[in-house]
Structure formats: C-alpha cells, structure tokens
Amino acid sequence: MLILAAFPPELEPFSERYRKDARAIGVGLVTAAHATGALLALARPPAVLLVGSCGVYPGAAPAVGSVVVVTRTVLADAGVAQDQAALPPPMATEAPMDGAWMERFAAAGCIPAVTAGTLGIATDDRLAQALAARSGAEVENLEAFAVASACAAASVPCIAVLGVTNVVGRQGRIQWRDNHRAVAARVVELVERALA
C-alpha cells in the first residue's frame, strides 16, 4: 500500500515499517492531483492510503482530536456554496473511496465521515456553514478529493484517514497549528492498528 500525506510531518510518526512506503504529495487540490498521478504511474501500488488532517464543519459530529475515515469525498466551492458560481455538469464532483478498506478502518476506531475537497481553507464562520450545508460534508480537507480522483482514473483503490485538528472557520488555522502534531500521531496509531 502506498501511503500519502500532504507534507512530511504527517508521515513522521509512522514506524519504519510503514514509512518506507510513504510519500509527501504537497498541499492542495492541484498539487496533490499531479503528484498522486505521477506516483501511481511509477509505482502502480495495489492501494493508496491518504493520511492527514481535516477541519470539522460547525455543528458536525466528529470532535476535534478524533480520527475519521472518509466514506465519500465531494468537490466543494465557496462561490457555489454562496450561490455566486456553478460547477458545469460534466465536471466530476464526487470521488469514490474503497468500501472494504473503509470498514477495516472503522473497525479500528475511525469515525465515518463525508469530506469536502476545497481549493482554499474556509476562514469565515458563515462560509464554513454554507459549505457544509451545500456539500453535505462533515469535514473539510484540501487533498482527499484530488487523491481519490487520481486513484479512480488509474483504477487503484483509495482510502483516506484524517485527524480532526480544528473547527472550520475563523479560529481554524490557530487550532490546526496547536493540534496537528498530536492528531497526526493519533492518525498513525489507528492506521498501524488497522494495517497490522
């Protein structure tokens, strides 16, 4: 299994056994899509696991500090959420996750959640609420949609396990800074339990 994360600190807590199959792909939809596509072409792994962090939308169930397994990832846009833009119908707005892997990570203690893939981090409380309402997602992450889309195009099973570091909105970046290392360690703990 190829393990991906946006940046190296999310991979550091892995034991050497798993770290040798782990790669950082960069932050954001575009960078993650390009890097994942290139790695899939080179490695042809049997499956891909994305690990990282996410923010929970206000009022959604997963608590800060918990770990979610992504059941579905949807493309979300601030303009669309505020009825100021539209995604053209041919554009893919949902990317699949692997059901068998999902069940395995849920059994290890991860909470099932729908993830919104956004181009930018929502830093406004009202925008966070609008994105949640329009997308139907509980959490927001910048890479899951891109990685899942690249995997679908290459017919490679994909799963994402993300630690909840913050509530999406004006305090989100401060909370992420304070929590991301501890949450990354918790993600790794559950991943290694599920893969053992």
Automatic annotation (TrEMBL):
InterPro entries tied to this protein: Nucleoside_phosphorylase_d, Nucleoside_phosphorylase_sf
Top-rank lineage group of the source organism: Bacteria
Residue span(s) of domain Nucleoside phosphorylase: 26-195
Cross-referenced Pfam families: PNP_UDP_1 (PF01048)
Coiled-coil boundaries: none
Membrane-spanning ranges: none
Protein name: Nucleoside phosphorylase domain-containing protein
Native species: Pendulispora rubella
